[in-house]
Amino acid sequence: MPSTLLLGKLAFVTGAGSGIGRAVAIRFAQEGATVIAADRNFQQAEETTKKLGSTHMPIEVDVTNGDNIKSVLEEAINRYKRPPSTIVNCAGITRDAFILKMEDSDFDLVLNVNLKGTYLVMKHAAQRMIDYKLGGSMINISSVTARMGNMGQCNYAPSKAAVDCLSRVASKEFARYGIRVNTVVPGFINTPMTHTVPDKVKDMITANVALRRFGEPEEISDTIAFLASDKSEYITGTSIEVSGGLA
Ligand code: NAP
Q1: Closest ligand 1 atom to the C-alpha of 21?
Q2: Which residues are the active-site residues?
Q3: 2 within domain boundaries
Q4: Which domain holds residue 171?
């Protein structure tokens, strides 16, 4: 019997052209959702939807650009006659360097994509959900590096701590509209984002993971699917760590 956890839901997934966002898009479609796969890299987004079928929609979006987000949401409404009411913010970047070597422009860039991008997508998506009187679920992505204070990530780690806080604020502001907001906090996951981590560093990280391995994107999408589903109806304003028991 096909899985139906997300049957009938229209989902907007950013960063859907790669890694965790792609795994979310695939899992959502398997669970009966229709997916708008949004990424700044359209070709990659299209690669994702090719795996899913023609009812799903690839779309190019830059999450740092509010006007772009608005027009992309309008395009989705034109096609599906309703706005998406399941929103997953997976778009994210790293630009690592020690504080003394960090380019100020890279500091701004990471905050802009990871934090402001999440804020802008939530804001514009929530407005449309409210206009259409739709409740829904938003899931944002933080990182264990936010609590670890990872060296070399003076931009990325605070951006992810702030995403967690932003989600809690949004959960309180949006609850009256029937919109839940939660955060998933991945540990170290095998995606293009971590492919550049040197093996020596990977070994050091793995030694601190109780399950002694990096996670797979599908292991994050399982939790996101739960938070998107009606099975988590009483869960909002919280964070769920999926890190294999990282110390
Ligand atoms: P990924 O494979 O690099 O995927 C991120 C996707 O977001 C890429 O397709 C990227 O495009 C896209 N993107 C970047 N900037 C964008 C923008 N301004 N507008 C729209 N799309 C944009 O990374 P991932 O590992 O799947 O990460 C997904 C999320 O999980 C991120 O928020 C990341 O911080 C978080 N996370 C990852 C890990 C991990 O270990 N992998 C751990 C904790 C949290 P480009 O390729 O063109 O940049």
Answers
A1: 26
A2: 156
A3: no
A4: 10-242
